[in-house]
Amino acid sequence: MTNKILINGEWRDGKGAVFSSFDPSTGEEIWKGASATKTDVTDAVTAARGAFEKWAR
After folding, report:
1. How far apart (Å, rounded) are the C-alpha atoms in residues 36 and 15?
2. Phi then psi for 13, rounded to 5 degrees?
3. What string of pLDDT tens digits covers the 57 residues of the chain?
4. What is the pTM of this model?
5. DSSP-based three-state secondary structure for 29
6. d(Cα 39, Cα 46) in Å, to the nearest integer?
């Protein structure tokens, strides 16, 4: 299971709900990971805004 999410160039432990991804042709589970929390999303949006401001200059 992958529990890491990438925010602002840094891998963090995902603490949100765990979800699975399945191969549609076989129904086999091929990946399981943790989703982002509200705080993770807020941090990601803040980092993206800061990166965009630097990039757009």
Report:
1. 7
2. -70, 130
3. 567 889 999 999 888 898 899 999 999 999 888 889 999 999 999 999 999 998 988
4. 0.70
5. strand
6. 11
User: Which residues are paired to 3 by β-bridges?
Assistant: none
CB 5 within 8 A of CB 12: yes
Contacts of 50 (CB under 8 A, 6+ apart): none
Secondary structure of residue 5 in the 3-state scheme: strand
Token couple for 29: 């589970």
Residue 43, CA distances (Å) to 11, 17, 19, 27, 39 in order: 13, 18, 21, 34, 6
CB 14 within 8 A of CB 3: yes
